[in-house]
Amino acid sequence: MSVVGSIAGKVRKKPPRYSAAGLLSKGLRGGEWPRVWRDVPLKKSYDVIIIGGGVHGLATAYYLATNHGITNVAVIDKSYLGSGGSGRNTAIVRSNYLTPEGVAFYDRSLSLYNSMTSDLNINVMFSERGHLTLAHSDAALRTMHWRAEVNKLQNIDSSVITPEEVKKVVPSLNISDDAHHPIAGALFHPPGGIIRHDAVVWGYARGADHRGVEMHQKTEVLDVLCEGGEGPDGKGAGGRVTGVRTNRGDVSAPIVVNCTAGWASLISDMAGVRLPITTQPLQAAVTEPVKVFLPAVVVSGSLHVYVSQTDRGELVFGAAVDPFTNYNVRGSLDFTEGLAGHILELMPGVSKMRLLRQWAGLCDMTPDYSPVMGFTPVEGFLVDVGWGTYGFKAGPVSGEMMAEAIATQRTPELIDAFKLSRFEDGRLVGEKGAAAVGH
Amino acid sequence: MLLVPCPNCGPRNASDLRHVGESVSRPDPNSASPAQWRQYLYIRDNVADWNTETWYCVRGCRRFFKLERNTATNEFRNPPMPGNKLGGKA
């Protein structure tokens, strides 16, 4: 183990702060930046083990340490931090959902994103540029009105605007009747915007590390260890979790949290907890950078496409999930072809732009397009999964709520509707305001 | 691009078919408990390995059939088996 290993378990006294002055002096004098988080040996036991080092897992660890003083925590990931959905999403944040549960939840997340740069002392480059959800039919427009009213009741800035007003917000959109699916109006949500997703991951990891949480990358969970359950090896309902088996040895912990997105059902199966989840890849793509011309995030549910322009000038596109379950993250020509067709219908002016690359991330889809959060029939085994195509924007509040659930051993009210038992009780949430859902 | 080996139409692009989903056992409606019904409705194995699934050839022969596919590599193996629109195990 390297020199940094010798400070294992100790909380850094004075975490180095990021500042403009520091950047300037480093730029003038040169030299290496200090490592952002420690590289420490894996201990034999922790109070809490969080499986999955993405926004959800790291935010849970961060809020456990900051809000509840629980710092004997390990975040383990089979790859590097932010290698899954946290580094593959299209970085759009918003709170104009359809169900009151969804709106309350994502609004809290948006307010945490708003103050994140100062809270975490890292520039997450949150750009509150406005979010347009286009409607192409009377039926879609009716849903937009419904969403707008639900939003207004909860004090969310959200309204339905006409095609002419859409054109004023985004001049490059084609609002004429010539299009195959003409724009009939849009739901305008000014607080929505984009954020630098990698900085969010690094910010939470750094903040958690400074408070004593350990990050263990390249540590794959091979089994979840349980006792007393009705299934084989003491797994399943009525049992209790005792730790995890990893490729670096067994680690014991009374609480294990599953934040593994696409792999969620595989990890939960290891504890004997069956989840109503299927894994489907969602593809995204980015173009070459051009001069800034797209001032807002544009989404079309009917055309299955969303687009925003990054600070570098690239257009980032996302689409619907692939139409079959799959753990493979290779891109397909079907996606590129469909995407190009739909984008050109919305913005004919970008026909000469070239795609730089495309990629895919794994989405853990639930039957009702809402997450599964909180306690399971196995004591000490918690889940924060089923985040499908909307996980990134919910990262901060999920972490906060999961940390509260772990610390108080009670389900917080904000996530009560998302508990696993809703599928047994028949109380599905039905969030049709989710991203990448045709409605 | 995923080429699905339809037993009647030969290899077809996946966009010509509908993925009905993983084959699950349909309980007997006369004797099933609510828990068994929910299991049938919502719970899937969702393995990252070989899995038996039902496909529907929407733009071809319009038949349901079952195939074994590896969900990690997207390879198919073994000949197609007859299926039905309920996606259940025959």
List the helices and strands and how they pair.
The complex is a heterodimer of chains A (439) and B (90).
Chain A: H1 20-29, E1 48-51, H2 55-68, E2 73-76, E3 92-93, H3 100-114, H4 116-120, E4 131-135, H5 138-153, E5 159-161, H6 163-169, E6 185-189, E7 193-194, H7 197-210, E8 214-216, E9 221-227, E10 240-246, E11 249-252, E12 255-258, H8 264-270, E13 278-287, E14 297-300, E15 305-309, E16 315-321, H9 333-346, E17 355-365, E18 372-375, E19 381-385, H10 391-408, H11 422-425
Parallel strand pairs in A: 1-2, 1-12, 2-8, 4-14, 12-19
Antiparallel strand pairs in A: 3-7, 4-6, 5-6, 9-10, 10-11, 13-16, 13-17, 14-15, 15-16, 18-19
Chain B: E1 3-6, E2 10-13, E3 18-22, H1 34-42, E4 50-56, E5 64-70, E6 76-82
Antiparallel strand pairs in B: 1-2, 3-4, 4-5, 5-6
Protein model, in words:
The complex is a heterodimer of chains A (439) and B (90). Chain A has eleven helices and 19 strands. By secondary structure, chain A is an alpha/beta fold. Chain A has a domain of 148 residues: D-Amino Acid Oxidase, subunit A, domain 2 (D-Amino Acid Oxidase, Chain A, domain 2, 2-Layer Sandwich), CATH 3.30.9.10. Chain A has an eight-stranded mixed sheet, with helices on both faces. In chain A, helix 3 crosses helix 10. Chain A is globular, with a radius of gyration of 22 Å. Chain B is mostly beta strands. Chain B has a single domain, classed as Folate-binding fold, CATH 3.30.2270.10. Chain B is built from one helix and six strands, in the order E-E-E-H-E-E-E. The longest helix of chain B is centred in the middle third of the chain and has 9 residues. At the A-B interface, helix 8 of A face strand 3 and helix 1 of B.
